[in-house]
Each structure stands twice: as C-alpha cells, then as structure tokens.
Amino acid sequence: MGCHQCLLISAISVIIFGITDINASRFFSVELSGANVTYFDREVLKCMNLRIYNPKLASMDFTLAKDLSKFNLHFLLNIIRKDERQNNIMNVTMSGCEALAYNKNGNFLKIVLREVHRVSNLPKKCPLLKEIPYAITNFTLKDDDFPITFPIVVWQLTLKFSIADKTVTNIVVDGRVRKM
User: Fold this and answer.
1) Which Pfam family is one of this chain's hits (predicted)?
2) Alpha carbon distances (Å) from 62 to 3, 114, 122, 158
3) What angle do CA 162, 122, 49 make, to 5 degrees?
4) What is the pLDDT of residues 26-83, one digit of tens each?
5) Those residues with Cβ within 8 angstroms of residue 12's Cβ, 6 or more apart along the chain or in another chain
6) What architecture is the 33-179 domain classified under in CATH?
7) Where do the domains of the chain lie?
8) How big is the chain by its Cα radius of gyration, in Å?
9) Cβ-count burial of 164 within 10 angstroms (0-12 exposed, 13-18 middle, 19+ buried)?
10) pTM metric for this prediction
C-alpha cells in the first residue's frame, strides 16, 4: 500500500468517523488558507461576503432576495496530493433544512455545523427569510474538535447551495493540516 493510500485511509477514518479524545495533546493545526465564492445567483442571494481573517478564523454574511423553505447543500471534501491530484473523502448532499437542525455525532459535518450554529444567527429550522442579514461571525477551527491523530494534508471543501438542481452559490474553502 502506497503512502498516499495510507494517508487517505487515515483521513477517511478520522474525518468521517470522528474518533476524538478532547483531553489528549495534538501535534497538528487545522488551518484555513483561502476561500472563494465561485458562483453567485443574484435572483436568490441579494448579497454575500466571505472573509478569512487568519488561519483559524473566518466570517460570512448574506442576505436573501426571496424566502427559502426548501434548498440543498452539497459538501465535497478532497485531499490534495503532492502531485496536485485530488482524492475525494466526503461527498454528501443533504436538505438545507436538515443541515440547519443537524445534530449527528462525531464527523466532519458535525464539527462544521456545530460551530456554524454557535457563531451565527441562522435559524435551527426553515424557512430562511428574505431581507434578513444572516451572519456567521468568527467561525473558528479548533484543533481539539479533531481526532488526536490526524494526517498532515492539504484539503479543499466545496459547498454548493442549490434549489431544485439550480446552483445558487458555490463556495470553495482551501486549508491544510500542518505539523506543529
């Protein structure tokens, strides 16, 4: 088994299954390195801003142009190899309303959505209302939320927000796990 296969298996097990020990020391840092909104539909989104302040801290705000009671979120997580090829380790599509109330234990989506709920004014259920300025302020990546053993990798998370198979926005977040 090659090095990248071991890395992939390790990444899949810790990210998807979320084996964590909050009392153990971590010798890595999970960091953000960039974020872009690659597509934006003005019929649905009146405005959207995304900012990364430092490797651990990001914020986003948006206002809808119309009420939304039904929408989908597609999460795609890839590991970027040294040869620039990508290995997909998560590909999940879920109802946006389900994501607002998401409370499953121990996986990557739980970590992200729990922090979104903590630092945002998003409701815990649908609908999302037009003309309300929604904000995710000071979203923080906390190393203690991740398993004690974690591979050193470069990753890319793509979040696609859609209504009836029509893309509303596409957000790409780049990051890395680095040794401390």
Assistant:
1) DUF1091
2) 41, 19, 11, 18
3) 65
4) 788 999 999 999 898 999 999 999 999 999 999 999 999 999 999 999 999 999 988 9
5) 89
6) Distorted Sandwich (2.70)
7) 33-179
8) 17
9) exposed
10) 0.81
